[in-house]
Amino acid sequence: MTTESVFIQMMRAIATDPAARGLRDDAAVIELGGESLILTHDMMAEGVHWLQSADPADVAWKLVAVNLSDLAAKGARPLGVLLGFMLGDSDWDRRFAEGLGQVLRQYGVPLLGGDTVSNRGDKRAVGLTAIGAATFRPVPSRGGAQPGDLLCVTGMLGDALAGFELIEAGFDPPPALAAAYNRPVPRIDDGKALAPNVTAMMDVSDGLLIDAERIATASGVAIEIDLAKIPLSDDYRACRGENRDSRLQAASWGDDYQLLFTISADIALPVAATIIGRVGEGSGISLLDAGAALPLPPSLGYQHH
Amino acid sequence: MTTESVFIQMMRAIATDPAARGLRDDAAVIELGGESLILTHDMMAEGVHWLQSADPADVAWKLVAVNLSDLAAKGARPLGVLLGFMLGDSDWDRRFAEGLGQVLRQYGVPLLGGDTVSNRGDKRAVGLTAIGAATFRPVPSRGGAQPGDLLCVTGMLGDALAGFELIEAGFDPPPALAAAYNRPVPRIDDGKALAPNVTAMMDVSDGLLIDAERIATASGVAIEIDLAKIPLSDDYRACRGENRDSRLQAASWGDDYQLLFTISADIALPVAATIIGRVGEGSGISLLDAGAALPLPPSLGYQHH
Known about the structure:
- 2 copies of one chain form a homodimer.
- Helix content of chain A is 32%, strand content 27%.
- The first copy, chain A, contains 9 helices and 12 strands.
- Chain A has a 7-stranded mixed sheet. A 5-stranded mixed sheet of chain A has the order 1-2-5-3-4.
- The radius of gyration of chain A is 19 Å and the shape is globular.
């Protein structure tokens, strides 16, 4: 067991309140005054979540976007954010503040508060708490997928992977791929439109395959994914091809921040999305490629360990 | 201007929503579904907020307590917390988790979520978001003090200072002084009892004098403080004496987490507290010692700079 998994187990032993959802969901849900409050806190660290060469404005953007993405997965409207910030180089700080202002204006989300500590030469980490209010109840969870449901995903997968690879290798990626990695778009409106219709929903942060497996586990169902259906952008295909390996990588790298959901086959999709699989009886996920079973890759996505 | 004050100015330029209270209050207040939600996020850093030799369980306790203290200053009942944690040495992490469990059980507050990042040898910083619901509205703020009001404080001042000094010097302090520094007590029940009665309220985190000045500024009033009235514990007097310098230090060191409030002179104090001063017309704070005016010390408390 790794340091992180041990710590998360200790936290789960403490987080026994139902609102915490066993620390196994995208966000906590607490009931107050006839509303369902949605709360999430995600951190990012230099060298792990961003390259040392990254534009600090992009770091701020992504920090807000990944937290708003968790709210989107609950169909919530954002109410505000609180920032936990490590001070350091003043140019870096100023540029971060610019990006923070941009992303909050873009999504109309107020900065409510926060705190700073001095960094003193260490690698930085930044954290953000986002709070939202559910627009539909019951609030979607990862449980609830039913045999017969379709598995669907919004947008394209793998663009962030392609953008990251090119940036890290010193290339200047196509703008859409760079943006997918640096400035992901939280699917807030999609989340609101989907919440009343889905049986399960989450955002794809760690990789489609591992996230689909989480829905399967939480729902007590099996999920079959058709690799040929994984939605890939033209830019992605141009840069990385669309063979089986490329598709598997797009399905297991993460950082996509698309919404992954299950929905009854009888309901018309309320947002633009791609049907990529089907829910069945059983457990775990399985892969099909052009109708034939395909073994699962050794890694389904980013594991917290 | 320091790095921190520049950054906070940039944040204030972004945080224009009234709920943020100009980032000049203990917590943000947002209205939702007939309730007033109270939100705060405070961080602690190794070498700044805790000694390297500190028991990690005490660090966890204090991190929760200082955030709950901000909720107490708003008369709020805590609804839950989210943790932002830097992983490191696994013994440290385990001991931190134990302290976290203890303090959350002590105050009946659920852990709702959070995130971890790996530390990789750097000095650690930890952050916590606390959310609460107001038990009385309008929610107390730092503004609202009226000429003629009394200035009061709960509990004793300076015990955390005395505990810190002795621990840092390698002594074993009296248990109450060590506890005041390591395991401060958020005055949650006092805050609830005071909220309907006070004209202004905050918690004393940076020092009585600087915090009283903040109330004076926010309220547009003058506040006169009688140094002889500063409440000092028997342990404090035994360790540090009670002469003028000792009293001034107790009034400007901070880390007390007592509630400082103004209240009409016509109202009986609803909690145990000491009357230490009086609100008048004008601006700023002034000091009296045994009836005679005393110049303000060069530092009124901990400045965020």
